[in-house]
Structures are given as C-alpha cells and as structure tokens.
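Example (one chain per record):
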Amino acid sequence: MTDSEIEQWVLRELRFAGNIESRELCVSAHRGIVTLDGTVPSRLSKAVAKRAALKARGVKSVVNNLRALPLRNLRQTDGVITKAARAVTAVMLQPASFADPIGPIY
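Predicted structure:
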C-alpha cells in the first residue's frame, strides 16, 4: 500500500469520525507512520482524530501534532470570575457601618 493510499484511508476515517471539526487538518504518511498536523477546537477532537487515524488501513502508528485551541467558554468564565472578584473586593473595602440608615426607634 502506498503512502498516498494510506493518507486517503486516514482522511476517510476522519470524515466518518464525525466529532472532528477542523478546516486546518493535514495528513501525511511515510511507510505506515501517519502524521496529523493542524488545529482542532478541543482536546477531545485531537484524541478522536488520533483514534480514527489508527483505524485506517495500512497505518502502523500515528504522530499526533494537532493543536487544541482553548475553549471559548473558559475565556467567558474568566471574565465573569474577574468581575465577581472586583465586586467582592469593592464591598470588602467599604467601611463597616452597623447604623440603621433610617434611624433608631425609641
């Protein structure tokens, strides 16, 4: 089996895997050793791609050079945490006042 045929089998398996969302995926083969390059949206996609490549006909091993991008949700969560920390800090820095704002009742 030629390297080109192995690459085609790997690409076919990647299409059938379904969980791999990438437009920047490069597959190369040399004597049955497949190298995956590019970026994918998550570590899960990276693992799924490797498993799919290992299933392809003629593959002896896989070198997984895929990069997983950070999740967008984590960036949004970081912003929320930062805002909450600022609000808590602002409240904590205010002087404590135990006086009733309406006034004492006698």
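Caption: The radius of gyration is 27 Å.
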